[in-house]
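From: lab user (bench 3)
To: helpdesk
Subject: output format question, protein + manganese (II) ion

Hello, I'm new to running complex predictions and I'm not sure whether the block I got back is the full result or only part of it. Here's what I submitted:
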Amino acid sequence: MPRFVIDAPSVPTLPVEGSDALFPVRRVYCIGRNYAAHTIEMGGDPDREPPFFFQKNPDNLDSSGEFPYPPKSSDVHHELEMLVALKSGGTNIPVDKALDHVFGYAVCLDMTRRDLQGEAKDLRRPWEIGKAFERSAPCGPVVPAARIGHPDRGLVELKVNGTARQTGDLGQMIWKVPEMIAYLSDYFELAAGDVIMSGTPSGVAAVQRGDVLEGRIEGVGTFTVTVV
Ligand code: MN
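Helpdesk reply: Thanks, we reran it on our side. This is the complete output you should expect:
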């Protein structure tokens, strides 16, 4: 066993549906603008943009079911997304082999300090201040692909206090899951424990303390988060 000069931080984990064992998280990649209607609502052109990615911190993932309203923002948005959890990785992974690396899928939220992200965009600065804050990635349990397969179509819906706010379909993704894995593996070495947040459909909007966010992805499951 190595010795450390300070207490070593623990490995961030996600629960796994139907198991007592946990999924350990190494890196968190997030794609931007992966549904045409959301690209348009954010001022982009869905026909001309190659994919782009940003990262959150592994310990931003949180399965407690509570999202503490973060400091330094008055415009925090929900983005409902499907999370892809990898059991293996590599470089230059071909599209037709990409799904072999997937352990499972989860319902998650890419919570965003939209005001701070907007300032960063205007100043051509990085996005971390808007995206990678504490508990910014509420996430349900990982559901093994061994049980549900690899969902590539099906309803993606977020209800806020019982009213549908975001509605889309996995089939509307501009960059499909195998393409995202292949693309990332050309730029980074992917590995077991990496997760990919696969983008949000249109309808992103601000949350308030007390809001109940109910995410549902057909073929994966549901996850409920309360803003506190
Ligand atoms: Mn997002």
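A quick orientation on your result: Residues 177-187 form the longest helix (11 residues). Let us know if anything else is unclear.
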